Amino acid sequence: MNLNLRIGLYCLLGGLYFTVAALGAGHFWLWWLCGILTVASLTPVVRFGSRHWLAQAGTIYLALVVVGLVCTLTEAVLFFPNMKAEAQRDLIGGAVSYLIATVVLVALARMLKLAEPAEQAAPHRPAGIAIPMVVLAGCSYALYYQVFGYITYHYFTQQYYQQSVATQIVPLGYWFYVYLCVRGVVMVLAVLPIIYTLRLPRWQAALAVGVVIWIVGGGAALLVPNPMMVTVQRYEHIIEIMTQNVSLGVTAVFLLRPRAAKTAAISA
Fold first, then answer.
1. What b/e readout covers 195-205, taking b as 16+ CB neighbours within 10 angstroms?
2. How many CA atoms lie within 13 A of 41 on its CB side?
3. How far is Cα 244 from Cα 118, in angstroms, rounded to an integer?
4. Residue 264 has pLDDT above 60, yes or no
């Protein structure tokens, strides 16, 4: 079986695990599509990331739990405080579910022999430079959130969040920007193992990381109907999350990974 068929089979079979949620919520085909997209976004990690299964599992699980659960649920609670108990329940249940999903994805990738054997080290910046770069990348998320979030809110979603913004966000003042910066830093730290193990050229790694943060960070899950959002609202947020999260991923990789030519010069 050639590589493309194996990758397709990996996405289809791995995506089936995510249909477990359909047992209680319905929408089997949409949950499967959600799973396929999630697995597809993580395929570069199993192909070009760490080849040690435990490190690979840790990398995937960290992204799923932190980007896919913690960061999305904290934002939901920020806008709708009455969801706190539900969010805590979803966090615990989701963490367990994602642990099983991680084991399934890593095992399936090994069975299908998806790991790329070619030797190519991912370039690193020195720790003294990397630390401020993580902070800078995280703070860039606040900028992307404000710019693209404002456009989406002003032209598309204002009718859904006007009261929440007035009662929950405006009173926070500058603390809301602090929250956005912290959230951005947390997401960058969550995908840092991917950035530092992905054996891909800089541009490809940047796009791969951006897609992971987008798809795992809500882009895929919003395909499935939920009681909090109407259909148009969900699709508007998918685009909004893409503009914010892909931009964050690209920025993080460009700040944390030097150019190949510079890396070669340093090595010489």
1. bbbbbbebeeb
2. 28
3. 32
4. no
Instruction: Tell me the one-letter amino acid at 35.
Output: G
Residue 267 has pLDDT above 50, yes or no: no
Residue 89: Cβ within 10 Å count: 10
Neighbour count for residue 11 (Cβ, 10 Å)? 20
Measured distance CA(33)–CA(248) in Å, rounded: 24
Q: For residues 242 and 80, what is the distance between their CA atoms, to the nearest angstrom?
A: 22
Q: Can you give the residue ranges of every domain in the chain?
A: 3-267
Cα(118)–Cα(121) distance, rounded to whole angstroms? 10
Longest dimension (CA), the chain: 59
Query: How many CA within 13 A on the CB side of residue 188?
Result: 30
Which tokens sit at 253? 């990789």
* Helix/strand/coil for 196: helix
Q: Whose structure tokens read 């510079």?
A: 262
φ, ψ (nearest 5 deg) of residue 27? 60, 50
Cβ atoms within 10 Å, residue 128: 8
Please state the pTM of the whole predicted model.
0.93
Question: Region 41-48: what's the mean pLDDT?
Answer: 96
* Of 236, 193, 245, the residue nearest 215 (C-alpha): 245
Q: Please name which of 241, 129, 242, 139 lies closest in space to residue 182, comparing C-alpha atoms.
A: 139
145: amino acid identity, one letter: Y
| 3-class secondary-structure state, position 61 | helix
pLDDT tier at 263 (50, 70, 90 boundaries)? very low
